[in-house]
Design brief:
Shape: globular
Order of helices and strands: EHEEEEEE
Largest sheet: 3 strands, antiparallel
Number of strands: 7
CATH class: Alpha Beta
């Protein structure tokens, strides 16, 4: 994170094994539509990382049914958790239009596919022609 420019759009995604809850002290980096009520230890670390680096956990911002929030299903007792997340810098947070879990594609595992729709404007710099 220290090597990236402040003008870069930083997007971090992955299987963090993190449960992020609805506590008020995490409200700066977590949306109010998370699946869990309490944050686990890894979740506290991720929230601290996001707060230090000015990131937003965008997978908890959008309101969906619980079935579209869970990203991992425990094979033993069929409990669904939201442990895969997408983080983006707050400066570029408006480029993400939607984040949700797709349960239909069979990825041959216990994780569900997480889809993010990103709207990115690409600009070009034109140099003046010399005559």
């Amino acid at each position: 994170m220290e090597q990236s420019s402040k003008h870069d759009a930083v997007i971090i995604l992955g299987d963090f094994n993190v449960k992020v809850g609805k506590e008020m002290n995490n409200r700066l980096v977590v949306g109010k539509y998370t699946l869990h009520n309490e944050t686990n230890d890894n979740g506290l670390r991720l929230c601290q990382f996001a707060e230090i680096n000015n990131l937003l956990i965008s997978s908890t911002i959008y309101e969906y049914k619980k079935i579209h929030k869970g990203t991992w299903k425990d094979p033993a007792n069929k409990v669904v958790n939201q442990i895969d997340h997408i983080l983006i810098c707050k400066r570029s947070a408006s480029t993400i239009q939607d984040v949700r879990t797709l349960r239909v594609p069979n990825c041959d595992g216990d994780h569900f596919l997480v889809r993010a729709i990103i709207r990115q404007k690409i600009t070009t710099n034109y140099e003046k022609r010399k005559q």
